[in-house]
Design a protein that fits this description.
Layout (H helix, E strand, L loop, with lengths): L4 H13 L11 H5 L2 E3 L3 E8 L6 E6 L5 E5 L14 E7 L9 E9 L2 E7 L2 E6 L2 E6 L9 E7 L11 E5 L5 E4 L6 E4 L8 E2 L4 E5 L4 E5 L7 E3 L5 E5 L2 E6 L3 H4 L11 E3 L15 H16 L15 E6 L13 E5 L4 E9 L6 E4 L10 E3 L6 E6 L5 E5 L13 H4 L12 E7 L17 H6 L6 H13 L6 H8 L4 H13 L5 H8 L4 H11 L6 H6 L6 H11 L5 H14 L3 H8 L7 H11 L7 H17 L2 H13 L2 H21 L6 H12 L8 H7 L1
Antiparallel strand pairs: 1-25, 2-28, 3-4, 4-5, 5-6, 7-8, 8-9, 9-10, 10-13, 11-12, 12-15, 13-14, 15-16, 17-18, 18-19, 19-20, 21-22, 22-23, 23-24, 23-25, 26-27, 27-28
Helix pairs in contact: 7-9, 8-9, 9-11, 10-11, 11-13, 14-16, 16-18, 17-19, 18-21, 19-20
């Protein structure tokens, strides 16, 4: 028997043993790897497997290059209180061959633990309803400190809980919340009002004790590129981008919608799996489609080749892959048993990215397996610059409540709870490199800061975290030098760290604003918000060729409210208002959503002369905001402007202009004056706001 026939024989034996079953049995790690069809320039190596790891959902490397993984054996069931079985393990390669051969338990008995992040010699752990901090204080390898830092997160569905801890380039720590309603409290400030996260994700800073909502409704998969653009997965939608950060959307708090999720895939649900759908899924899909046909519904469900379990989207920034792979997004689909790759490119006509298939993957995936137990749940970039793939490895991966009872009778949802794999993905010409010599804690100031310019994003992020955890004055000169350097990624990190240490100066931001690199300029605009003297420099970037830069300039400019700002926002609206994200950016500011900007649009830009659909959308939202604010003087100015339009023009605008105002008044939290109450009554009593006598309404005010 040749070596090459062993995996095939193992595969045949596994399927043969289950020939009377509707579901295949497990494969050994080597046999499972033999089923992988992977990009021709890459290979997969086994990093860890049972018995050293079971049910893994996340992997991280600390500042010593030591690997920690979190296991989630409770899935898909909710454990009883106090009986969680989640485990965090320290994984060890004792002989330096690149494969884990030993492990120890760092922490156990954790319910619904889903993600980790190293912090101050310990680990931050998401485990709904908590985010914990765990640390080994006595050096025995086990966490003897377990502190709940935040609590109150949604905990009723293991597929939609707090997860994906990520350190952003701006020194905030981000977490995916799937938009679930949560009443989050902070242990260090128990008297603070609980934060309702419904419709949002979460971010926090432990160095400044801040926490707040963040845009996006990431499920299991959230990642950032080098410039802070946020991408996330939600089952069928394998790549979305959060177009505008939440802090801008809540400036006046009266936008009709806070959702800024943008599906950026140009190939939507399409994927190329090599496994047939499992029996239960095929049968359930057949039943549902039959029901749709009987009910004459224009709807079809697909059991295969469509994303249904997209997970763990991760931007690769390791620097060890061939040219063209840096910045690509890798996403697993746990239902399709595959790894999908997207090339992210800037949209020339919108301030978001476009996710495209690579040319060589137009009809295939980066990795696809014929092993139906292969469950690629997540990824991480390692100290060696390679991409590590976390394989949950279960026979079934689905919420039982969504499967008909008769089909569940033949399914064991815990089959495979004693298995799990982690793989290393690397170019064929490369070799695994042990990380035993890493020790960030022993680096002097110059050496540590220099890692912010490393080609591998893991080194950059680890150095950033070390500086953030314990900022020292001795770092500042080296950070200043880096902030004035040539590499955009390191300049951004240095600038944000200087800001955190109260050592950032205006001239540093001005210099960054003059860069020709869009990612650096975008972040310089954010930093420029703290310097009123840079208002003109910010405004100049609203016409930048980079749509990403122009959007950020509009958002940053909107933090101020003077006539200069209104004039620039009006010009931006006329130029870019057809795009909903530019329109939303302008509307999110007080200056961009008040009667004053409408007067500028009318007098200087002839805005009302034609009623294009996007213009009506803008006016409808302005009216909604004014109504929701409930400020009588602003509403009077708005109504006066409408009444001043020529009759023929007025007829085009009145319906949408008053409909938005009516909806806003209904949502107003403030107690209306008698005048506004009368106006609200008049609008509500009309069957069609277009038919109301506008001058009579103005007279009420």
């Amino acid at each position: 028997m040749t070596r090459s026939t062993i995996p095939l024989l193992t595969l045949l034996l596994a399927f043969g043993a289950c020939e009377d079953s509707k579901y295949a049995g497990p494969l050994s790690p080597d046999a499972s790897m033999a089923t992988f069809a992977i990009h021709e320039d890459f290979e997969v190596q086994l990093f860890a497997a049972e018995p050293h790891i079971n049910d893994p959902v996340d992997l991280v490397f600390d500042e010593y290059g030591v690997a920690y993984a979190v296991e989630m054996p409770d899935y898909p069931y909710k454990p009883e209180p106090g009986k969680g079985q989640g485990v965090i393990k320290k994984l060890m390669d004792t002989d330096g061959d690149g494969r884990i051969d030993a492990s120890t338990v760092f922490a156990e008995g954790i319910a619904d633990a889903t993600s980790l992040m190293p912090w101050k010699g310990g680990l931050l752990v998401t485990a709904a309803p908590h985010i914990y901090y765990m640390k080994d204080l006595d050096g025995d390898g086990k966490a003897d400190q377990k502190e709940s830092i935040f609590s109150g997160f949604f905990e009723n569905n293991s597929e939609a809980q707090i997860t994906n801890l990520r350190l952003g380039i701006d020194n905030w720590i981000y977490a995916a919340n799937n938009g679930q309603r949560s009443e989050v409290t902070y242990t260090e400030n128990p008297d603070a009002e609980p934060l309702n996260l419904q419709g949002a994700d979460f971010r926090f800073r432990l160095d400044t004790e801040k926490f707040e909502k963040e845009s996006g409704t990431a499920q299991f998969g959230m990642t950032f590129d080098d410039w802070g653009n946020k991408f996330f997965t939600q089952n069928t939608l394998h790549v979305q981008q959060a177009a505008i950060p939440r802090r801008y959307l809540e400036r006046h708090g009266h936008l009709s919608s806070m959702s800024v999720n943008q599906n950026i895939s140009d190939h939507d649900f399409e994927m190329f799996q090599m496994t047939p759908p499992p029996y239960w899924r095929a049968e359930r899909t057949d039943r549902r489609n039959k029901q749709y046909q009987e009910q004459q519904l224009d709807r079809v469900e697909h059991a295969e080749d469509y994303f249904t379990g997209a997970s763990g989207g991760t931007v690769y920034n390791g620097g060890a892959f061939p040219e063209g792979f840096y910045g690509n997004l890798f996403t697993g689909d746990v239902a399709g048993n595959l790894v999908h790759r997207d090339v992210l490119v800037a949209d020339a006509h919108a301030p978001t990215q476009i996710a495209r298939r690579a040319g060589e993957e137009s009809d295939r995936e980066f990795i696809a397996s014929t092993d139906p137990w292969f469950r690629p749940a997540g990824f991480t970039v390692g100290p060696d610059g390679y991409l590590y793939l976390v394989d949950f490895y279960r026979q079934h991966i689905e919420t039982p409540v969504s499967i008909p009872d008769d089909l569940k009778e033949e399914m064991d949802f815990m089959n495979g709870a004693d298995k799990g794999r982690i793989y290393r993905i690397l170019p064929k010409s490369a070799a695994a490199t042990p990380a035993n010599s890493i020790d960030f804690s022993s680096m002097d100031a110059k050496t540590l800061v220099a890692q912010l310019a490393h080609q591998n994003g893991w080194w950059r992020s680890t150095a950033q975290r070390q500086i953030l955890e314990e900022p020292k004055q001795e770092y500042i000169p080296f950070l200043e030098e880096l902030a004035a350097g040539e590499q955009p990624q390191s300049r951004v990190l240095a600038l944000y760290l200087l800001q955190t240490m109260n050592a950032l100066e205006q001239h540093m931001v001005e210099s960054a604003l003059k860069s020709d690199h869009p990612g650096l300029v975008k972040n310089a605009l954010i930093l420029a918000e703290d310097y009123p003297e840079l208002q003109g420099a910010i405004a100049a970037k609203t016409t930048d060729p980079s749509q990403m830069v122009a959007l950020q300039a509009i958002l940053s400019l909107g933090n101020q409210e003077d006539a200069f700002v209104r004039e620039n926002l009006a010009a931006s609206l006329v130029e870019k208002g057809q795009n909903k994200w530019f329109r939303t950016a302008i509307l999110s500011s007080n200056a961009g959503s008040g009667p004053e900007i409408l007067a500028i649009l009318d007098k200087e830009h002839a805005f009302f002369e034609n009623s294009e659909s996007w213009k009506k959308d803008y006016i409808n939202e302005v009216a909604h905001i004014l109504g929701a604010k409930g400020e009588e003087e602003s509403i009077k100015s708005y109504m006066d402007l409408l009444a001043s339009l020529p009759d023929t023009v007025q007829d085009e605008w009145q319906g949408v202009a008053l409909a938005g105002l009516q909806k806003g008044l209904e949502k107003s939290a403030s107690r209306h004056s008698d005048t506004l109450s009368s106006l609200k009554t008049q609008l509500e009593s009309a069957s069609n706001t277009s038919d109301l006598p506008l001058k009579d309404l103005v007279a009420l005010l």
